[in-house]
Write a structure and sequence with these properties.
Strand order of the largest sheet: 3-2-1-4-5
Shape: globular
Structural class: alpha/beta
Distance between the termini: 46 Å
Bound molecules: adenosine-5'-diphosphate
Number of helices: 6
Helix content: 40-55%
Number of domains: 1
Number of strands: 5
Strand content: 15-25%
């Protein structure tokens, strides 16, 4: 039987509990989930390097069965082809996410009509959470317990 492989792409700078929730909830829907850390981000210099983000995600997943992490650059559909995936998983927080996610899903399908995007809605308690916001709060000295996995908090404390 063909393996159902999904890719969950993002910048994950840093990985937060909203991301982790999506990973855990999409895992049973597929045979394998590849968390894919984007290299060519337009979001500017990151808090962590791409290599550190991959390491942190790997550490946090702690050998979670059927989930692995990789980084990629270039087009997502090319990366998907390379890993044999046909599904893109994305999280939806609010209406504001919808427009850009909708555009991206349509573009990816135009680039490769075999690729489908599946959206999981955020858990209520994480629906306001974004890497940008949590980064800002952390850098201003705010408490990020409960928003970031312990592995990320430990790295930040170093
Ligand atoms: P962020 O938007 O937090 O900077 P990314 O750009 O790395 O994170 O997003 C990767 C994916 O995770 C996107 O599909 C995004 O919508 C989703 N996502 C981000 N934050 C949350 C959240 N709090 N709950 C659910 N999904 C989320």
């Amino acid at each position: 039987m063909t393996q159902r492989i999904a890719v969950y792409p993002g910048s994950f700078d840093p990985l937060h509990n909203g991301h982790l929730d999506i990973i855990q909830r999409c895992r049973p829907l597929f045979d394998e989930v590849v968390v894919a850390v984007l290299r060519n981000t337009s979001k500017g210099k990151g808090l962590f390097s791409v290599e550190e983000r991959v390491e942190i995600i790997d550490e946090t997943l702690n050998d979670l069965d059927g989930v692995r992490v990789e980084s990629f650059s270039g087009l997502l559909v090319h990366f998907m082809e390379a890993v044999g995936a046909r599904t893109i998983v994305r999280g939806l927080r609010a209406v504001s996410d919808f427009e850009s996610e909708f555009q991206m899903a349509l573009m990816n399908r135009r680039l490769d009509s075999r690729m489908e995007t599946v959206f999981l809605t955020s858990r209520e308690e994480f629906s306001y959470l974004s890497s940008r916001l949590v980064k800002e709060v952390y850098l201003l000295g705010g408490d990020c317990q409960g928003l970031l996995p312990p592995q990320v908090l430990r790295r930040l404390a170093r």
